Amino acid sequence: MLHCATMNKDEIYSESLANIANFNFDAQVADVFPDMIERSVPGYRAIITMIETLTEHYAQPGSTLYDLGCSLGAATLSMRRGIATDGCTIVAVDSSEAMIERCRKNLSLEHYPTPIEMVCADIRHVEITDASVVILNFTLQFIPPTERRQLLEKIHNGMRPGGVLILSEKVFFADKHLNTLLADIHHDFKRAHGYSDLEVSQKRSALENVLVPETIPDHRERLLQSGFSSCDVWFQCFNFMSMLAIK
Ligand code: GEK
């Protein structure tokens, strides 16, 4: 997992707030991020671990591997551990300066031959070239829905044949009963990991209109429309899932 210099507890929404601002990946969030994501995203740890195995399978010699929305570099590190071929480069991108600054420190704690270029930029404006593995681990959900297709097409166009996109997202379900059930179970998961009802509800308000989930069929259809030849879910835990899309 991520070897962080610190593992601060997420208490951002523990006190009652008069105004709940839109969720933002600032220094306050970056400081508690490993704790926040592990206690909020069921299956996160399993996905990060499997990224190593998937990278081992898909990384092509001399290619570039991208981690788009890298946060503190958990997926970047897993990807680097999995590279079993020569001449690869990793590009890790995040638009939050606070994340990139802390990510740089985390990446320097492990030593592997593959170089990592860190870029503080909006992934919508980053060029993708000669890629064999691209990761969007819980990042696409923060891009406005109307811009997602363009981003996926750009990624597809910048990939080598046989390359893979690993797309992890929070999702919702068209079946109302199932949707409510899985959302409730997710809240139970958060309570079991120490979040109070107040924290769950204030965080939900902060993420409203910032994190916009879609259904699995919507993701599948758009990936195929963006040019990927095969795609499906390889991991799911409640209303969180990860897909593979192959060029
Ligand atoms: C992990 N992948 O630990 N351009 C660049 N970065 C962005 C953009 C954008 N347009 N929008 C959001 N981000 C990580 C976890 S977190 C998921 C990813 C979560 C960045 C944002 O700054 C944040 O660091 C990350 O995407 C989303 O495997 O918090 O649920």
Keywords:
41% helix, seven-stranded mixed β-sheet, single chain, 7 strands, 20% strand, globular, 247 residues, alpha/beta, Rossmann fold
CATH level-two architecture of one domain: 3-Layer(aba) Sandwich
Number of strands: 7
Distance between the termini: 28 Å
**Widest sheet: strand order?**
3-2-1-4-5-7-6
CATH topology of one domain: Rossmann fold
What is the fourth-level CATH superfamily of one domain? Vaccinia Virus protein VP39
Radius of gyration: 17 Å
Structural category: alpha/beta
Please report which band the strand proportion falls in: under 5%, 5-15%, 15-25%, 25-35%, 35-45% or over 45%: 15-25%
Kindly state the mean pLDDT as a whole number?
Answer: 94
Instruction: Name the hetero compounds present.
Output: ligand GEK
Instruction: Report the top-level CATH class of one domain.
Output: Alpha Beta
Q: How does the major sheet shape up?
A: 7 strands, mixed
Order of helices and strands: HHEHEHEEHEHHHEE
Number of helices: 8
Give the fraction of residues assigned to helices.
Answer: 40-55%
Task: Summarize the entry for a quick read.
This protein has 247 residues and is α/β, with parallel strands linked by helices.
Commentary on this structure:
- Helix content is 41%, strand content 20%.
- With 247 residues, the protein is an alpha/beta fold.
- The protein has a domain at 44-171 and 211-246: Vaccinia Virus protein VP39 (Rossmann fold, 3-Layer(aba) Sandwich), CATH 3.40.50.
- α2 packs parallel to α3 (74-82).
- The chain has helices at 27-40, 44-58, 74-82, 97-108, 145-157, 176-192, 197-207, 216-225, and strands spanning 64-68, 89-94, 116-120, 131-137, 159-170, 230-237, 240-246.
- It has a seven-stranded mixed sheet with strand order 3-2-1-4-5-7-6, with helices on both faces.
- The protein contains eight helices and seven strands.
- The two termini are 28 Å apart.
- α3 (74-82) links the parallel β1 and β2.
- The structure holds ligand GEK.
- Ligand GEK is lined by residues 25, 37, 69-71, 74-75, 93-96, 99, 122-124, 137-139, 142-143.
